[in-house]
Design brief:
Layout (H helix, E strand, L loop, with lengths): L3 H13 L19 H9 L7 E2 L5 E2 L8 H12 L14 H9 L17 H14 L7 H10 L8 H12 L20 H41 L6 E2 L1 H13 L15 H6 L8 E6 L4 H9 L2 H7 L6 E8 L6 E8 L1
Parallel strand pairs: 3-5
Antiparallel strand pairs: 1-2, 4-6, 5-6
Helix pairs in contact: 1-8, 2-8, 3-4, 5-7, 6-7
């Protein structure tokens, strides 16, 4: 088994503290360029960099330049294994990125890799499938893979060893066809503009899984803190209730608009639990806003007699936890819902 848990944990922590992209404008990538937004996004995050300047000092990206395997691996390591590439030392500049890629099995299924050669689309597909698997991100279903294969114009000519990877990247929308027939053209090279587009599509596909991992990590961390407090008080531990977590997530979104135990439709929070067939007495709801960490939020609640009483209530056995990070207001919104 690959390092799925460690990778998702790192990404979950990154997702919890997003970094805003810096401005990145290139003279040879006008706003009319088909990949302008993708290049801006990737370069702004430091995933792809410029290639230098022209004689007038204008920054250049060289969108049509071919991409090497080393450059593609560097993109992925910067994006998903940040901090795992050390110094190149006496080796080539790409050596630490290559080592990180090897550590995560990104070359599995490929013949001998020439890092300095332009990367063919077949190899890119295999590497992308490997990174999805390494990160623990779900691949498209078999039905989706079969549907993708039927849309690829040159499917029958794709070597068997590449077919799974090609169908994965096609079905996930990460790499598409080269023409109206969906021709994959796996021996073709990839340029820097295409690489930027492929990276942003990878982000789009992976983001829901990464966000889910971030939320699950927060829930597990908070459950641990709750049960530590209950243990200190001589009380039995609580279980994390999946259905109540789903509802707590709804409530977390609602309190970004109205910070109240009364729902947006005027109902008490517990009314929906009754409709769901979930016992809600004894129980309670804690809400909080403003703190970004589990520890700070728990401290806030434990220093409030009413909230502390909910956490340490006898007769409860389950808890649902919700968290939403919003752009405005208090930014961080937390909900605990306790049930028997």
């Amino acid at each position: 088994m690959k390092r799925q848990l460690a990778s998702l944990l790192v990404l979950a922590l990154c997702a919890a503290s997003p970094i805003k992209a810096a401005s990145a404008t290139f003279y040879d990538v006008p706003s009319s360029h088909w990949a302008y937004e993708d290049i801006q996004q990737a370069a702004g995050k430091g995933i792809l960099q410029g290639t230098g300047t022209d004689q007038n000092g204008n920054r250049l990206f060289e969108p049509q330049s071919s991409l090497t395997t080393a450059q593609f691996i560097t993109i992925l390591v910067r994006g998903y294994y940040a901090g795992q590439a050390g110094s190149a030392g006496d080796g080539p500049w790409y050596a630490p990125y290559d080592q990180a890629a090897q550590n995560h099995g990104l070359y599995e299924g490929l013949p001998k890799v020439d890092l300095t050669a332009t990367i063919p689309r077949y190899h890119m597909a295999v590497i992308l499938q490997n990174i999805l698997e390494d990160l623990g991100i779900a691949l498209p279903s078999e039905e989706e893979l079969e549907s993708a294969a039927a849309k690829i114009g040159d499917w029958k000519s794709i070597p068997a060893e590449y077919q799974k990877a090609v169908s994965v990247v096609y079905a996930s929308g990460i790499i598409g066809g080269m023409d109206e027939n969906g021709t994959f053209a796996g021996e073709s090279s990839v340029n820097r503009a295409q690489a930027a587009a492929i990276y942003t599509r990878l982000e789009t596909y992976a983001e829901p899984y990464i966000q889910a991992a971030a939320l699950d990590y927060k829930r597990q961390e908070m459950l641990k803190e709750i049960n530590q407090q209950r243990q200190n008080a001589g009380l039995s531990p609580l279980r994390l209730d999946g259905r109540v977590c789903d509802y707590a997530q709804v409530r977390a979104q609602e309190i970004t608009e109205s910070f109240s135990h009364t729902r947006l439709n005027g109902e008490d929070y517990w009314t929906e639990l009754g409709r769901m067939g979930i016992d809600y007495y004894p129980g309670g709801e804690n809400i909080a806003a403003g703190n970004s960490t589990v520890q700070a939020t728990m401290n806030q609640w434990m220093n409030s007699p009413g909230h502390k009483a909910n956490i340490l209530k006898e007769g409860i056995g389950g808890v649902g936890i919700g968290y939403v990070q919003a752009e405005g207001g208090y930014q961080h919104y937390w909900v605990q819902i306790f049930v028997p």
